[in-house]
Design a protein that fits this description.
Structural class: alpha+beta
Shape: extended
Strand content: 25-35%
Distance between the termini: 66 Å
Oligomer: single chain
Radius of gyration: 25 Å
Number of domains: 3
Length: 262
């Protein structure tokens, strides 16, 4: 009982300190400030048994906090216990614990999906406030690491544009490679990542004049009715209005129509 009480007290202190933590991060990092002004909402964090609850009101980049529950929060995060809440809200969470909590419904998120994602992104930006990404290079570019679906690569960027992509060369700061010794011989891989060819061509994909930049919808295609396969190849180039659904394309606004080979 004493341990449970200490967990609840620690969670209460953390929830009270959260607005100050966010404000400090916003002063340090422009990305946090920009994200704060991008949405107005009410976020509530509470325990399932009601022993601890606090809600936060985000308005025009500012944040105010109130104890207790809100009658209609946009986001309602509910933790099974204070121990679960503390383990998930710490700056360096054990992701095995996080996955266990998510899979076993030890934490639930109710309310609006858009605001729930927004708050999650805010917490990620707060945790990363002040971090510096990339390695400055002698030619004035910055080298980043990208984990693509074809393997990890280096991406060199200057002026917001991709200059080139290369396989990752491992150095002494990276973990050692594996070594197999057999029949008097030693086998060790070369100190370089081996991505697929398509991963190294991502610069061409990003800047291709044939890249699809808007959602596409099949002509006369109704997922709940007539599929009209004879019209396969006819597409509508569309734009999605905020808050509308992409499924079926019935709520898309058409910008232009074009014929495309299947």
């Amino acid at each position: 009982m004493m341990k449970l009480t200490l967990h609840t007290l620690a969670l209460t202190a953390l929830l009270r300190a959260l607005p100050g933590i966010i404000k400090i991060a916003a002063r340090r990092d422009k990305r946090v400030r920009d994200h704060l002004v991008s949405s107005d909402c009410v976020v509530q964090i509470r325990l399932r048994d009601g022993s601890c609850a606090r809600h936060y009101i985000f308005r025009r980049g500012s944040i105010t906090a109130r104890s207790g529950t809100h009658k209609s929060p946009d986001v309602d995060m509910v933790f099974k216990t204070a121990a679960v809440a503390l383990s998930m809200m710490r700056p360096d969470p054990d992701y095995a614990v996080v996955i266990d909590a998510l899979k076993n419904f030890k934490v639930t998120a109710g309310g609006q999906d858009k605001q729930t994602v927004w708050f999650g992104e805010l917490m990620n930006k707060v945790a990363a406030a002040g971090w510096k990404a990339g390695t400055p290079m002698k030619d004035g570019s910055t080298r980043y690491t990208a984990l693509t679906n074809g393997g990890p690569i280096f991406v060199y960027v200057a002026g917001g544009k991709i200059l080139r992509t290369t396989p990752i060369d491992l150095d002494s700061t990276d973990a050692p490679s594996w070594t197999i010794r057999a029949r008097g011989r030693t086998f060790t891989p070369r100190r370089q990542a081996v991505p697929s060819p398509h991963a190294l061509s991502l610069k061409s994909l990003v800047y291709s004049d044939k890249r699809i930049l808007t959602p596409l919808k099949r002509v006369d295609f109704d997922p709940h009715g007539a599929r009209n396969p004879q019209n396969r190849g006819g597409i509508l180039r569309t734009a999605v209005s905020p808050g509308t659904s992409r499924s079926g394309g019935t709520r898309h606004s058409t910008l232009s129509a074009e014929k495309s080979a299947a």
